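Researcher: Sequence recovery benchmark, item below. Answer with residues only.
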């Protein structure tokens, strides 16, 4: 519902901050390290949010980066891992370290988080390993597409430059075929 909240940081507490947006103070639960990194009271801040609605609770959870938000969403998708546990994990482990730990089956790193035992760590790894690998593959595909677009852009630029220098299109294509084969 809320992608992010941008406003004046009014209060900082151990587990949450209050951000004033147009005269309304939003209580946003955050990881301790995120609260420390958010900035000074009175300054304008931007927090990416996760809006959780339960039968007895409506809460906003905040993150300084999209990567932290995505890691939080992955963590709460694991059975037995709640929002508060996910915030504790984000306080102890960076999202990139978490992803590496899951992909490499590093139970030891995950059990260093307070409240996460060996069984919980194994469940997290089991449920998230395939998701993280799939995401990583999607990112690599997007990266490859971007590189491919840059290469074809460069090739077009080179062809134009060679044509300006007087080479025929046929000679240029022949040269590029030769380069592609090698």
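Model:
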């Amino acid at each position: 519902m809320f992608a992010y909240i941008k406003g004046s940081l009014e209060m900082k507490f151990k587990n949450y901050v209050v951000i004033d947006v147009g005269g309304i103070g939003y209580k946003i639960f955050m990881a301790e390290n995120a609260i420390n990194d958010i900035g000074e009271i009175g300054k304008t801040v931007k927090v990416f949010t996760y809006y959780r609605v339960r039968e007895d609770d409506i809460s906003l959870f905040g993150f300084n980066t999209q990567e932290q938000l995505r890691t939080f969403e992955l963590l709460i998708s694991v059975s037995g891992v709640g929002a508060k546990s996910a915030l504790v994990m984000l306080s102890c482990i960076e999202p990139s370290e978490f992803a590496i730990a899951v992909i490499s089956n590093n139970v030891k790193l995950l059990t260093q988080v307070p409240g996460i035992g060996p069984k919980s760590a194994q469940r997290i790894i089991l449920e998230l390993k395939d998701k993280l690998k799939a995401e990583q593959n999607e990112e690599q595909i997007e990266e490859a597409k971007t590189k491919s677009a840059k290469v074809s852009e460069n090739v077009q630029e080179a062809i134009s430059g060679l044509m300006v220098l007087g080479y025929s299109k046929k000679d240029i294509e022949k040269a590029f075929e030769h380069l592609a084969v090698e």
